């Protein structure tokens, strides 16, 4: 061997003839079953390959590959193992010169077949499978970094390599207590897959993932844990910036598994029971691999992914209604999709979570008196999805968590006909309102004993503006919600938690606290003013009021306030336990005994207690007069006259409001001048004035326009105060002599006479009127 190596190194031009001679000898020895001579020839070829780096090595390699080819075609396991061992050694050699004509198609096919070997002897079977895996690993290493070699990423090659790796990996999950050392086929297959995925570029992702999806389909592995593990291996091995491509391919595969025809129904060829399990498996894989990817790697098509998942929810509901036999699988699928939506949202920035919640809200069908069962079920499922996304959002400012485009549809849905839907809406409010982890404490609250320690923070200026703008609308919907006849115990408890969170998060603002107190006393009056309520409904309303005021008393810590609340609760505990919260006997009430005044909370006592601590309670004694929900949406309380801006006569002070005829100095000279000027001159002047108006609106900053209207607001406020001050005291339609607040009494009378201020016409420049 030493002489042969010296001869080859000293005469490199002889290498091709040496290789050709050895190949002929090996072919002859194989046919004659002289295995000893075959081993000697292969060892000689291996040493020559390692020792020689001549330019003529390519021809020598061709002879070497012919020998490997012949050994692999042999049916003897020892020869196949010998060929694989030599090929792996060759794959680790870095060649100096490129090869333009070498092909590895046969080796890919043969090594892949070895990976599926089914020899009767387990030890021999494992050895052959390991040999096949090492051979595939050698082919990949030899070709993946050489552009002149055969493209190993071609679909025809990947459809052989990937299933071979996955087949050996799944053996690990099907064989309990299998060893995990590097000599086992499943461990080696996983390492090969990791190495292959780490070398894949963006253009290769599709050719690698498609065989994975096909293999999982053919072997029905979606319903097993092996599918999750396989995709985790892929996601941990692939370059991070390409992770979203895997997710998109998986989403596309899920869409293919849920194909529907033009009418929206599933095709008859689909098998609902098996298909539901497969779809649930794909969705479960999605939920497990999204957490691995970085937040920004989900890609630009976030809304498309959420839209696709929501469509799968809708299709699942349709299948669930049309195929009762598959009810359980479709329910599990829906839960998996909802969980996946939450996992997706958890990897998004907060601003995108709000967009996703708005997007889901837009998919919820409108609620009506004649809503179909399918629509109600879809409302419930989609709102549960929205709730799952909302749990991943951390509220900082209320205005950001509740933009008007999201808040108004959510409030409308809070009055849905189905109580379960309304309950989910309230849970969404709980999730987004709770910024200080007070929700679990409120859910366990009772009127017996002290409250858990609640975390209260000062209300920011932005939150004060939010509650001033949207508070009346939120409270009107709570007021209407309480009156719905099909409310359950869970609905009332959810409304109590919503009111409690509003008080905790925004109640440090005195005005917001007073408005909440007005609302709760209006709710207390409902059983006396609404004849359609059942006895259990009235008892639940009184329990809701008691639980909320109990929380307010502990938050404000005003002694007289707390004493009054505790006294009423004590009276109820002694004579009317059905009026206390969390009592389970409300549904059994056929008739409600008369509720005397000593069982009701006194608004006057509460107002005096709040006034003693510095609160302005003039508004508290004003009756709560909610608008009808069918009217035009008003963002402010009707009783809040001080916050209404109405255009009166100060139009000239606003840059955006001009009289049709601007004020001019009228004198005899000006009239003579007007008569003397031709008509064309007058028209030109009018045109110039209009151009000045247009230019002002085009160039002036928005802040400047707002600043010029501030004085107008002050003048209007003074004028309103002057008008209210001139009202005669003879108006006594709603006299209440015992009221300690005469000013509030006068305001109340005025509001009852004209509950809605008359709208004033807004004058615009002629240029803007069409």
TrEMBL record:
InterPro entries cross-referenced by the UniProt entry: ARM-like, ARM-type_fold, EFR3-like_ARM, EFR3_Homologs
Organism this protein belongs to: Limulus polyphemus
Protein name: Protein EFR3 homolog B-like isoform X3
Assigned protein family: Belongs to the EFR3 family.
Organism phylogeny: Eukaryota, Metazoa, Ecdysozoa, Arthropoda, Chelicerata
Pfam families: EFR3_ARM (PF21052)
Superkingdom in the source lineage: Eukaryota
């Amino acid at each position: 061997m030493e002489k042969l190596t010296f001869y080859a190194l000293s005469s490199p031009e002889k290498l091709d003839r040496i290789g050709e001679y050895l190949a002929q000898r090996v072919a002859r020895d194989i046919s004659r079953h002289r295995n000893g001579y075959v081993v000697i020839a292969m060892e000689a070829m291996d040493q020559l390959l390692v020792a020689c780096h001549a330019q003529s090595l390519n021809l020598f390699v061709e002879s070497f590959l012919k020998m490997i080819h012949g050994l692999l075609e042999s049916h003897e396991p020892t020869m196949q193992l010998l060929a694989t061992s030599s090929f792996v050694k060759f794959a680790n050699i870095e060649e100096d010169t490129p090869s333009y004509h070498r092909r590895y198609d046969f080796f890919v096919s043969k090594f892949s077949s070895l990976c599926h070997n089914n020899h009767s002897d387990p030890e021999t079977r494992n050895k052959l499978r390991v040999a096949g895996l090492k051979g595939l690993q050698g082919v990949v290493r030899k070709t993946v970094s050489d552009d002149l070699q055969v493209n190993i990423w071609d679909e025809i090659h990947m459809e052989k390599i990937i299933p071979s790796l996955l087949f050996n990996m799944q053996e690990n999950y099907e064989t309990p207590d299998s060893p995990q050392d590097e000599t086992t086929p499943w461990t080696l297959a996983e390492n090969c897959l990791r190495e292959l995925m780490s070398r894949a570029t963006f253009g290769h992702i599709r050719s690698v993932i498609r065989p994975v999806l096909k293999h999982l389909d053919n072997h029905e592995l979606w319903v097993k844990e092996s599918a999750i593990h396989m995709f985790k291996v892929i996601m941990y091995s692939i370059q991070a910036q390409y992770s979203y491509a895997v997710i998109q391919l998986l989403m596309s595969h899920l869409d293919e598994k849920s194909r529907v025809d033009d009418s929206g129904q599933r095709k008859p060829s689909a098998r609902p029971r098996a298909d539901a399990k497969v779809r649930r498996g794909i969705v479960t894989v999605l939920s497990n691999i999204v957490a691995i990817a970085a937040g920004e790697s989900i890609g630009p098509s976030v809304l498309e992914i959420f839209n696709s998942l929501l469509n799968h929810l809708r299709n699942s509901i349709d299948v669930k209604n049309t195929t009762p036999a598959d009810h359980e699988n479709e329910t599990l699928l829906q839960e998996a999709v909802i969980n996946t939506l939450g996992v997706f949202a958890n990897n998004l920035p907060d601003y995108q979570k709000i967009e996703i919640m708005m997007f889901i809200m837009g998919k919820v069908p409108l609620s009506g008196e004649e809503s179909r069962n399918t629509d109600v079920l879809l409302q419930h499922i989609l709102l549960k999805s929205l709730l799952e996304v909302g749990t991943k959002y951390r509220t900082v400012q209320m205005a950001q968590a509740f933009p008007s485009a999201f808040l108004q549809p959510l409030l409308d849905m809070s009055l849905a006909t189905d109580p379960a839907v309304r309950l989910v809406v309230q849970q969404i409010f709980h999730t987004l309102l709770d910024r200080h982890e007070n929700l679990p404490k409120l859910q366990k609250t009772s009127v017996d004993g002290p409250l858990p320690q609640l975390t209260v923070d000062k209300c920011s200026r932005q939150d004060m503006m939010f509650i001033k703008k949207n508070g009346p609308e939120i409270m009107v919907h709570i007021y209407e919600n309480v009156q719905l006849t099909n409310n359950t115990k869970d609905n009332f408890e959810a409304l109590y938690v919503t009111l409690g969170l509003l008080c905790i998060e925004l109640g440090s603002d005195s005005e917001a606290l007073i408005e909440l107190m007005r609302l709760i006393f209006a709710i207390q009056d409902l059983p006396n003013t609404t004849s359609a309520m059942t006895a259990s409904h009235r008892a639940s309303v009184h329990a809701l009021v008691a639980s909320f005021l109990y929380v307010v008393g502990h938050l404000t810590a005003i002694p007289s306030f707390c004493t009054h609340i505790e006294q009423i609760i004590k009276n109820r505990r002694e004579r009317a336990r059905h009026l206390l919260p969390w009592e389970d006997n409300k549904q059994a009430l056929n008739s409600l005994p008369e509720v005397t005044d000593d069982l009701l909370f006194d608004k006057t006592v509460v107002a005096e207690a709040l006034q003693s601590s510095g609160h302005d309670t003039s508004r508290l004694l004003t009756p709560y007069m909610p608008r009808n929900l069918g009217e035009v949406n008003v963002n402010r309380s009707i009783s809040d006259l001080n916050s209404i801006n109405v255009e009166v006569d100060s139009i000239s002070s606003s840059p955006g409001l001009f009289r049709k005829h601007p004020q001019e100095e009228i004198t005899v000279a000006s009239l003579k001048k007007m008569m003397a000027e031709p008509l064309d001159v007058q028209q030109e002047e009018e045109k110039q004035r209009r151009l000045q108006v247009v230019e002002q609106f085009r160039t002036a900053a928005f802040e400047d326009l707002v600043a010029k209207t501030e004085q107008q607001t002050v003048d209007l406020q003074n004028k309103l105060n002057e008008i209210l001050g001139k009202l005669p005291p003879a108006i006594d339609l709603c006299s209440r002599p015992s009221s300690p607040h005469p000013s509030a009494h006068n305001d109340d009378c005025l509001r009852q006479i004209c509950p809605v201020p008359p709208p004033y016409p807004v004058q615009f420049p002629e240029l803007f009127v069409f």
